[in-house]
Amino acid sequence: MKEIIILFLFILLIVFLFWATISYKNSVEKIFSKMIIKNLEGKNYKLLIADNQKEWERGLMFVRCPCDFDGMIFIFPDKEIRYFWNKNTFVDLIVYWLDDDKIIGKEYLPSIEKTKEIKIINSRLPVNKVIEIIKQ
């Protein structure tokens, strides 16, 4: 009888973990329902589109891999020096700074779990697009 209870609890735990994973994936996809394929340095990436204030603020915070996407493109209405940080970011990122579709810079932004403190990076020139690629 004890073995049956343990087996039942184990199955219940597996079902809960599966449900939590699906639920989180669906919540990310609801927030960022738009995606594009973007070619960077000869490789195609599937990117979530962030094109409004709410999406810019959320970014890839709280994302853990594996994911159904490779990263995110932030599309801004104007060109400014942009600042990005790793607060609540649990994946390592390669950040591309773009002036329209021209790459003008590339940086590595480690996860908060690696740095143990917030790290801020910024574009050297004004940009209107930023792409974050999840480093595998």
Features:
136 residues; six-stranded mixed sheet; two-stranded antiparallel sheet; 8 strands; 29% helix
Describe the protein's topology:
Blueprint: H1 2-31, E1 35-40, E2 43-50, H2 53-58, E3 71-80, E4 83-85, E5 93-99, E6 102-109, H3 112-115, E7 120-122, E8 127-134
Parallel strand pairs: 2-3
Antiparallel strand pairs: 1-2, 3-8, 4-7, 5-6, 5-8
In short:
The chain has 136 residues and is α+β, with helices and mostly antiparallel strands. The protein has helices at residues 2-31, 53-58, 112-115, and strands at residues 35-40, 43-50, 71-80, 83-85, 93-99, 102-109, 120-122, 127-134.
Radius of gyration (Å) = 18 Å
The number of distinct helices, counting runs of at least 4 residues, comes to 3
Spatial order of the strands in the main sheet? Answer: 1-2-3-8-5-6
Order of helices and strands: HEEHEEEEHEE
Using the alpha-carbon principal axes, give the shape. elongated
What's the total number of strands? 8
Question: Structural class, judged by helices and strands?
Answer: alpha+beta
Report the sheet-strand fraction: 35-45%
Q: Give the end-to-end Cα distance, rounded to a whole number of Å.
A: 45 Å
Q: Stretches where pLDDT falls below 50 for ≥5 residues?
A: 23-30
Give the biggest beta sheet: 6 strands, mixed
Mean model confidence by pLDDT? 87
| Percent helix range | 25-40%
